[in-house]
Structure formats: C-alpha cells, structure tokens
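During the reporting period the student researcher (J.K.) took over the structure-prediction task from the postdoctoral fellow and processed the backlog of single-chain submissions. One of the processed entries is reproduced below for the supervisory committee.
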Amino acid sequence: MNSSTLNGSANTGKVTSIRGSVVDVRFDDRLPAINTLLLTGHEQEIKIEVYAQLNAHHVRGISLTPTQGLARGMNVTSTGKELAVPVGKNILGRMFDVFGNTIDHQGPLSDVTWKSIHRSPPSLSERATKSEVFLTGIKAIDVLIPLERGGKAGLFGGAGVGKTVLLTEMIHNMVGHEKGISMFCGIGERCREGHELYHDMKDADVLKDMVLIFGQMNEPPGARFRVGHAALTMAEYFRDEEHRDVLLLIDNIFRFIQAGMEVSGLMGQMPSRLGYQPTLETELSKLEERIANTEAGAITSIQAVYVPADDLTDPAAVHTFSHLSATIVLSREKASEGLYPAIDLLASNSKMATPGIIGNRHYEMAQEIRKTLAHYEELKDIIAMLGLEQLSPADHLIVNRARRLERFLTQPFYATEKFSDFKGKVVSLQDALDGCERILSDEFEDVPESAFYMIGNIEEALKKNSDKKQAAKEKLKKKTASPVEA
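J.K. obtained the following structure tokens:
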C-alpha cells in the first residue's frame, strides 16, 4: 500500500490489546468500517484489517503482517480504504504478495491502478449461459473429464500425488491459447514451489503472459486468507477491461479454508464439525462465485484441493465439491504404479461430459472407456487370487483393453522433463479419441502394453514397438555373429 492511500481525513486510534494476530483498537470518533485497512508500528509497517466492530469505540482486526514490536498504546491510523492491489497491463510477468508489492526484484511498477480486493460477483444478467469445452492438451482430462470454459475444476489429492505438477503443465499448455492470460495464485504453499515455478516459467518464456501472486505458508493467516481475493481482483481486470480469457490456477484452495479456520479460531468463534469455522460455506462462496464466464470474457479456474488423510468426506472437500463443474481425483494407488498423471478416472467426473456439449462420438467413447475400466476393476480381485489364466476369453480381452487404455492415458509432461527421460507432449483431442477408439477395437492385440506407456498419439506406440523389435534383432545378430567369450 503506497502513501497516497492515506487520505487527508486520516483517523487515529490506539492499540488496546494484542493476542497473536488479533489486535483490538480504540477510536474516539469515526469508527472504521469492516474490511478497512489500519496501519501501525514505528514505520507504519504493520497492516491490520478490521474484522469486527465490538462497540461504539472499539474494533477488532486481524494483522496481515507479523505483530513483533507492537505494544499497547501505540497509535493506529485508519486509511479509510480497503486492502487494494495493482491492476493493468504492466502487472504481466511480475510476482506479487497480498499487498500488491512486487517480490521478484525487478524494480517498481509504473502506470497501474489500485483496486480493492473486496468485490461482488458478477450478477446473473452479466453471466454467459453457453457451455464451451476448455481443451488442455492432456489426454486423460480432455477425453474423460472435459473442463468448462469459465468453469471451476478441482484437483483432489493427498500430499505428493502430483497436484502442483499438473497445474504447472496446464500453464505450459495454455501458452498462446486464445491469447489468454495465466494467473497463478499460491495460497499457503511452500516458498520453494513458488521459486521453482517462477524460474521454470521464465525459462519456458511464458512469463510475459502470466501473473503470479503468493501468500506463503510462513505468512500470518490473515495474509493467506486474503491472497485469493487479491488474485481474483487482478484476474477480473483482464476479463472485464481487456476482454481476455484468464486461466486462474489456485494452489491450494484447502489452505484458504485452513487460513479462514485459523482466523475464526483467533476471533474466538465456536468451531463447527471437525474444527472448521462456522462460516466455511459463506467464505468459500464469496471467493468461488467471482470466478465466472461473462459476455466480456471468462475466468476458468483450476484449483488444487489438498484432501486431509485422503478422506473425500472431509468438510473442506465436500464444500469445495459443490462449486465445481469438473472433479479430478488424483490417486495414490495410480502414482505408486507409475501411471502419471495419477488420475483416478472412475472417481473423476465432469458436468460437461454430455452428448449435447461434447458430441455423440466423444460421449459414447468416454462411456465405453469407463465401462471397460470399471469391469477391469471388478476383475482385479479374481486376477489377484486365481491369476489371469482363469479368466474367460471375453474377460481376457477386457483386461487387455483396459491395461492398454490405462497406459495410453499416461502422458509425458514438460514440467517433469528434467526428472524423467520423456520429452513433454501436447495431444489434440482428435488424436486422443482416435487412439482410444483403436485400442477399444482391439487393433493392437499383438503390441505389448509397455509400448503405450508415456506416449503422445497412438502412432508412437507402433514406432516404439518396431524400434524395440529392431533392437532385439540386432542384439541377436551380434550374439550369433561373435564367438562366446570365456
């Protein structure tokens, strides 16, 4: 917040109590409104947001910065304004904190406007009603869990199953997509991830169409709770003023709920089920409803959702489900088998997967894939107990199809090139559907299933298989030509 924010009629109060991040302030007149930003400390470096008006003279606020050095009796200045962030073309390629300060050591911003982070969602009359598919270039998602343009998709999974990697890959694939903007919002995640993401995007030359904003896990709960609203204010500028499509990636929406839970606890509110705040649904709705498709443009959001103890019945996961148009569930079992992206295709679903939106051919193929994978899931117990040999010929065919489909729906990512030896691939929906169709029609019965692992389109499986055969022939040739060594 710059000094110009302080207007001439600045109102001054005094700190009466401090309990961690909760600060009570007394004002003799003109009590500040809720969400007003207060400044205190020796250099006005401590920023407090008014959370409640206790009586005619006292307000209770949550500090957005550490409160070290704060003492009772200190002067507090009311800015008379809400927390604001910069918007404009010049924020592209930059990295911010919740206050709109740049944190990328690239010098100050110029020619930007400051807007309050507290804004209302677009009204129903402003929203677009047509449903369009948002293509990602990732086979498993485009074929079975199509995303909605202007919709919200959730990536559900426990720790270490690949949520951040999948988000990073989507940023890569969106470069140049309908001249869109990518906006990355890190809520309560590791500082290391933000640092790596910034440098990866810089190396890939996609930073010029991106904005990054972070409220990391070492920051107070007040800052983590507001960084999502700050990101949406920036995204809304590009949608409403520039009429551009925005891809908003949030990592991690659970940390937003968790920050709200900490703030609620600090304010002394009685927790509800499993320790969550009683206002969980309202707080989440205020954030989620601002993500919308309007006549001006669309904000399409993909949100990572950490699932505590892999329990999808946790209130945080349940409340998030209700806002989403697509649910992508990441499975620890798939990750342990090396099937990346580790998406549980049967547990994941999308409201877009209807014949009226994606067309009959795509819909019927998705249903056939699901049916094949579900049948294979049922047969797994029999295979574990009795072995593959005991299956009927029809079941044998289904297992072969399902195992080839599972491997074909894996994909090498640009984001993981340096860790794996696989070059990243973007696959068109047409290529993905053709590949699935040919596998389902048993065209590749004689091709080993390993040939389908980590490829782009289906032709690569045939090439991989022929290369393997050629290598085996040459090895055999060498063996028979040279005498056996002692």
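The committee noted the following: The longest strand covers residues 11-19.
J.K. will present the remaining backlog at the next meeting.
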